[in-house]
Amino acid sequence: MSKSMRLLQIEDSESDADMILRLLMQAGFEVFSHRVDDAEGLRRALDDPTWDLIIADYHLPGFDAPAALRILQECGKDIPCIVVSGMMGEDTAVEMMKSGAHDYLTKNNLTRLVPAVERELAEAERRRETRRAQEELRASEERLALAVEATQIGTFDLYPQSGKLIWSKFAQQHFGLSHEAEVTYDTFLRAVHADDRESAARTLQAALRYENGGEYTDDYRAVGIEDGQERWLSSRGRVFFGAQAQPIRVVGVILNFTERKRLEQQLLQSQKLESVGRLAGSIAHDFNNLLTIINGYAHLVLAEMGPENSLRESVQELSKAAMQAAGLTRQLLSFSRRQVAEPKTIAVNEFIKDYENMLRRLLGENIELTLNLDREAGSFRADPGQMGQVLMNLAVNAKDAMPDGGKLLIETSNMMVDDLFARTHLSVSPGKYVVLTVTDSGTGMTAEVKSHLFEPFFTTKEPGKGTGLGLSTVYGIVVNQSSGSVWVYSEPGHGTTFKLFFPSFGFESKTESAAGVEQLSAKGETILLAEDEAGVRKYTRGILERYGYVVIESCDGAEALSVARSHPGPIHMLLTDIIMPTMGGMELAEKFTAEFPTIPVLFMSGYTDQIMRHWNALTAYIQKPFSLSDLLTQVRDLLDRSSAKSLPAEAPPAAG
């Protein structure tokens, strides 16, 4: 069976070259051969990457094998080279092998030629296979590294006997470590939320005892070691056992699924409200039937009674209570979508103005009402009567939160919701929305209160002070009856903002033009982002990086200041949340501008800017939740304004 081979010969003697070819063909090789006899010819021949073997004469006029080997090394070619010579000394052979030759033969004894060629071809093939395997391994490792980078999956390596624990970069981030640090199993346990710590330890110990085949699987909350943030983490791993079934190593991965958990909680809350709504609707219909009978017979009794009857006042109170109960059932029906609605097109600004006088009388003199109506705010479809009920309920709720007086701000605007925003806010689809915002400066709410906010009959007021149906009615009308969405932002002691999103009606949605996007893109700027909420931080960073900005993250004001002081390059803007633990945005801005007076600051918060304060020329404000275009427009505008402000003034025109 013939063996194909491409042979490059470095030889000035044609007869010697033919002799070598005959020996190879007699051994069954099918040889394609090319002969060169100088350095230039060798370099040209090496442009062809397909040579299998080089056989070089040791000495040619003006050229020799050592020079040929140097050219091979310069070109980076891995082609086996066998040197042949008319005479051979041991020192010469050693010198050639050190210079890179694979074998050395004499022309008067070529009996070893064929075995040497076969050996070198086999070795070359093994080297190629090794290189291919190494390249495949490198590619595989590269793909794995890219996958880990894209998914931000952390890895861990735990040695149970010593308690030593090794975390990867992303594992450290998931546990709130911003730098490499020596950690142990105790470090892990301390970082797990106190309510989940015992369960987490028990699950790992079960795997170490070879329960479930040594598979380790657990979901738990962790509290950041440095940043104090709460995250939902999922760990998956396997225990490796040594002699006598002793656990010697646990290897696995850690995934941060905080955002998914938040969306699941939103979905569960929505489903719970849906279930409660159906129950409330059924109860309301039954109560309406009973109240109809009670109220009807009360009127019949009153009609038969004379004006002087001693029981007349009692029956009137009975009828009055029945009418009030009927009002409650109407609210329950609105929450459960069973109240018949008559949707009409509502121009949001005109709607607010129609209710302005009524709202001022409702709020009283100790609450300042301010309207901030965007002239471009559009229209939406809803039942005007129900929307009036929504507005009044929100105003009453705000008034109760400000017993000693305060401020109530009502705003209108348009908002273009993009895909990224829609993915992180349940029940909102991409498109154009009319937004109605109601903000008070009252007592605010805890996270626990917010989680029950829209449930019927839930109230924090004293007994007899409220029915607990006001905000559930708001939810039912906006979400169930009007295809809208409700977003709430509140912190204890800092007031509350309700944002109502209604699909815009009667306006075409406009997408960003290529030129518009280009105008909003970065011009080489770096932004320092300070935000304690991980989901908002990731969303904001994603928008900015998508349009070319370099983003440096920090989770509170103290960390932002530290990062700003140590950052080696320029920072062009500080983008900061206002309410953060450790150091809030207002204190951060004050200290930051004292050290970096020319760098502009963009504040963001769930509260309105008019409730918070007025800004100066190097500051601006964006209200949460914001869309991609909202953020990019504010960032670009402030950067351009601050850049123009820092330029030297133009010289006045010459006189005359």
Strand percentage: 15-25%
Give the domain tally.
5
Just give the CATH class of the largest domain.
Alpha Beta
Task: Give the overall shape.
Answer: elongated
Give the distance, in angstroms, between the N- and C-terminal Cα atoms.
Answer: 101 Å
Predict the CATH topology of the largest domain.
Answer: Heat Shock Protein 90
Rounded mean pLDDT is 80
How do the strands of the widest beta sheet line up side by side?
10-9-8-13-12-11
Low-confidence stretches: 335-340, 507-515, 647-656
Named at the architecture level, the CATH assignment of the largest domain is: 2-Layer Sandwich
Using DSSP, what is the number of strands? 25
Our Rg estimate from Cα atoms comes to 39 Å
* Count of DSSP-assigned helices: 21
Features:
alpha/beta; Beta-Lactamase; Helix Hairpins; 6-stranded antiparallel sheet; 5-stranded parallel sheet; 25 strands; elongated; disordered C terminus
Fold and architecture overview:
- The chain is built from 21 helices and 25 strands.
- The protein has 656 residues and is an alpha/beta fold.
- It has five domains: 3-130, Rossmann fold; 152-256, Beta-Lactamase (2-Layer Sandwich); 262-332, Signal transduction histidine kinase, dimerisation/phosphotransfer (DHp) domain (Helix Hairpins); 344-503, Heat Shock Protein 90 (2-Layer Sandwich); 514-643, Rossmann fold.
- It has a six-stranded antiparallel beta sheet, with helices on both faces. It has a five-stranded parallel beta sheet with strand order 2-1-3-6-7, sandwiched between helices. A five-stranded mixed beta sheet has the order 15-17-18-20-19, with helices on both faces.
- A hairpin with a 5-residue loop joins strand 19 and strand 20 (496-503).
- The longest helix has 47 residues, at 258-304.
- The protein is elongated, with a radius of gyration of 39 Å.
